[in-house]
Amino acid sequence: MENEIINELKRFIEYFTQKKSIELYEIKINGPSGNENNLMGIVIFFEIISKEKTFHLAMKTARKSDELREKLPVVLQYKRELYAYSEIFPAFRKFIQEESPKFSFDFFPEFYWLCSEEKCETLVLKDMRYEGYRMLNSKKIWNLEHSLLVMEHYGKFHALSFALKDKKPGIFSKMVGKLPPLNFEYRNVMNCLDYLINILKYSMNLLEEAGRNDLVQKFNAIKTEFVDTLNYKVPAEDKLVICHADCWNNNFLFKYDDERFSEPSRVCFLDFQLVTYHSPVVDLSMNIYSTCDHSILENFDVLLDTYYKSLWKNIECLGSRAEDLFTYEQLREHWRKYALYGLILMHVSVKLSLFNTDEYPDLIEMSEGKWDFQQCLKFQGKNELEFRRRILEAFIHFGDTFL
């Protein structure tokens, strides 16, 4: 373990034990989560064991390599997540206490500490695995029960933005003012336009091979919309909620009441490194297209209905009139305009989901300039056929339903 990480761990332990008045304790480090799926940082699982209680914790810390920090948006992602836990979530909790104390805001890990110093971007959270939560196998498709539960909770999460903006517009405006569009920051480390062009070419080739030239023509007709989506060109009136925006399999933990693990009772959202101010459909489209195939997309209307019913109920719970803020018709209009976000980002999330352990990027080689992130996404792994199937089905769904 790097000395810098050890020092960050020591700083937190000193802070935590003093705050909890713990004098005698042991530290058990259970090790890092591994490099896979953690391009931007490292997660260390550890325990603070006192006589009265054992605290199970997870420390997320940004990668320190100057070379990696130049090639990947390490700093901007960690800064956004630190902002989410230190400013956004506390503002939501304060609003809940004032408007509707019975509103449950319990689908995130408990937060203990952060450091925002350069090369020390770190936060410490509760290790939810010891609360009975588990992550799904990233190579497997979600079933309908998992998708419906997540739609319900996105409805609850987005309701906070709608209601806070309605009740306290000054506070909300100040909060989202510190969330500039992601493309302003990403373009300094990645050529997003080239990436988009490659995605479109790849997806159109899949449609041609499947004999869907009708959809190729329709998608080609909205190329400009794809570019605008990636560049976050969004009318002010369509920016409605604070979005999670990183909604793939590995950013959710589920809890179950039985050992079949087929129908979850609770969900925990992870990783707010892409948190942004946009349309609710940014979250919905990335989640649905990144975790579902045709078997779940056949229930698309059920998913959207479930989300909207939850959104409506929770906006009303927080004291605002849902029909005055966002109608179901507007939701479907937003899907037509902004679900392109999910179609674009699923190329990253599904690719990473299907990688085998030995196929993940070698970060040392990346820091030495032997390849870049886009080359990683062009890599054809052992599950490339499944990747192609998932991309094709998502583009067919959007094309047949909304074009």
From TrEMBL:
Q: Which domain of life is it from?
A: Eukaryota
SMART domains reported for this sequence? CHK (SM00587)
* SUPFAM superfamilies xrefs: Protein kinase-like (PK-like)
Mind telling me which Gene3D superfamilies this protein's record contains?
3.90.1200.10
Looking up InterPro entries in the UniProt record yields: CHK_kinase-like, EcKL, Kinase-like_dom_sf
Q: Which residues form the CHK kinase-like domain?
A: 123-320
Identify one Pfam family in the record: EcKL
Record-given protein name: CHK kinase-like domain-containing protein
